[in-house]
Amino acid sequence: MTDADGAEQSAAISTRLNWLRAGVLGANDGIISTAGLVVGMAGATTSRAAILAAGVAGLLAGSLSMAAGEYVSVSSQRDSERAALETERRELAEEPEAELEELTELLVARGLGRELAREAALQLTERDALKAHARVELGINPDELANPWHAAFASLAAFTVGALLPLLAILLPGPPQRVPVTVAAVLAALTLCGLISARLGGAPAPRAVLRNVAGGALAMGVTYAVGTWLGTNGV
Questions:
Q1: pLDDT tens digit string along 31-83?
Q2: What string of DSSP letters covers 132-184?
Q3: pTM for the model
Q4: Range of the domain at 129
Q5: How many separate domains does the chain show?
Q6: In the chain, what is the greatest distance between 2 CA atoms, to the nearest angstrom?
Q7: How far apart are CA 122 and CA 115, in angstroms?
Q8: By the 8 A CB rule, do 179 and 40 touch?
């Protein structure tokens, strides 16, 4: 395997890990936001129909909002990358020698000797000048620009999967068990999400799990208190 092939394989693995991490975080958002909503509703009413309506509305609103936000964000990123690639393509056509020297200097800055950097720059330029400059200078792989539709559907799916857990947990038991069962299921799921995100990010697991569980518990505690107060006062 050549160094270039190794670099491409590492970049591909890194991209997959980023997508997996984003999926875990999207599911985590779905769990917490929907859990807070349905637990709050359970504090206000025992009506399964009302809780279901609120939970489904929250799931749809949250997932569509996530998808729209991700689409806009990735579209903006993609437009910026395309503009940068177009500028680089024009500079390569107009000033090839200057661009070759620039690539050489970039490789020198990364630790290569001057002669080796020059030789590497020449070989990379002969192979694919635009791709070489995109990778080394811009940090972009022109063959793998982010797809906004993929990002949008991935966010929608991740949020929906996460949101289904608290929604099912609150609806299946009878009224007395709804909140305890939901809280237990949500905290277990948040623990798992915290462990996975810590593993993917190489961070300490206990701290990540504690943050995740504490955030979810706080969200459910606040919304349940507010829901109970509103239900008791008939607001």
A1: 999 999 999 999 999 999 999 999 999 999 999 999 998 899 889 988 888 89
A2: HHIIIII---TTSPPPHHHHHHHHHHHHHHHHHHHHHHHHSS-HHHHHHHHHH
A3: 0.77
A4: 23-233
A5: 1
A6: 80
A7: 11
A8: no
